[in-house]
Amino acid sequence: MPKDRIANHIRRLRFEHGEMTQQDLANKVGCTRQTIIVLEKERYVPSLSLAFRIARVFGHAIEDVFEFVEEH
Amino acid sequence: MDIVWVGIAVLGCALVILALGRFVWNLRPQREMGGLPVTSLEKLGWVGLAVTSFVGLGLATLVVFEGATGFHEKESSRLIFWALLMSGIGVWAAAWAVIKRRSGETVVDERDRAILARSLSVESVVVLLSLVTWTVTLTEVYWDSGAIPIAYLQLLFWSTLIGGAFGRSLGIVMGYRREISVDA
């Protein structure tokens, strides 16, 4: 059975947005800094609403921030 | 006929040990989850572990020195236990108030809530183990007399309650060392 994962570009987008800190992003989307860290490490898959909030902070569509990767 | 019961008991014990082993294995920390900043809920988990250990050890010490019947009958023993319990709850509540005040805007987020929900499984296992241990031990010890001293009811209740709270705190602390998703 293929193991899927959700990749993301949060770290790159943070730096492209004035080197936004993890704490700043956490405050903007309403989560803890630890959640942002595990998101960047791809050790946590967020809820759809958190994913939308993160995408909105960066002014991107959700699929520009999160990517569905099917691994065979 | 005895051999059948022995066989059932051995098989049952083996199954329980296997299930517990698998459960503990699934709780093992993942290296890549180490070194993260501590969240408010994780801090509260550590406080819960300390408080429940303190109250649990206090209860165990009282029972060792006074015996189960002594603990039930002596008012001084019960007062000491209530003082321990109340101080434990007080410390936990004060810690939560301080943690909440010192943390930023978000105290508990969706990942914290998922970890909190998953910690219920650890609590359930501890509660179940406590009940099984008490039931088997009391049945074996008091089988011949046909009656269990009423003092054990209180001990059973408090130990299970404290054990459950310890399990919940342990589940929270371990939860931060494992991957989780909101649909877990």
Shape-level CATH architecture of chain A: Orthogonal Bundle
Strand proportion of chain A, as a percent range, falls in 15-25%
Sheet/helix structural class of chain B: mainly alpha
Major sheet size, sense and barrel closure of chain B: none
List the total number of helices of chain B. 5
Give the ordered list of helices and strands of chain A. EHHHEHHE
Number of structural units classed as domains of chain B:
1
- Mean of residue pLDDT of chain A? 91
Structural class of chain A: alpha+beta
User: What is the overall pLDDT average of chain B?
Assistant: 88
Major beta sheet summary of chain A? 2 strands, antiparallel
Report the top-level CATH class of chain A: Mainly Alpha
Could you give the count of β-strands of chain A?
3
Task: Kindly describe this structure.
The complex is a heterodimer of chains A (72) and B (184). With 72 residues, chain A is an alpha+beta fold. Chain A has a single domain (9-61), classed as lambda repressor-like DNA-binding domains (434 Repressor (Amino-terminal Domain), Orthogonal Bundle), CATH 1.10.260. Chain A has helices at residues 10-16, 22-29, 33-40, 48-58, 62-65; strands spanning 3-8, 44-45, 66-71. In chain A, helix 2 (22-29) packs across helix 3. Chain B has five helices and one strand, in the order H-H-H-H-H-E. Chain B has helices at residues 2-26, 40-73, 75-102, 110-141, 151-175; one strand at 180-181. The mean pLDDT of chain B is 88. The chains are: A alpha+beta (72), B mainly alpha (184). The interface between A and B is medium-sized, with 18 and 19 residues.
Brief characterization of the structure:
The complex is a heterodimer of chains A (72) and B (184). By secondary structure, chain A is of the alpha+beta class. Chain A has helices spanning 10-16, 22-29, 33-40, 48-58, 62-65; strands at 3-8, 44-45, 66-71.
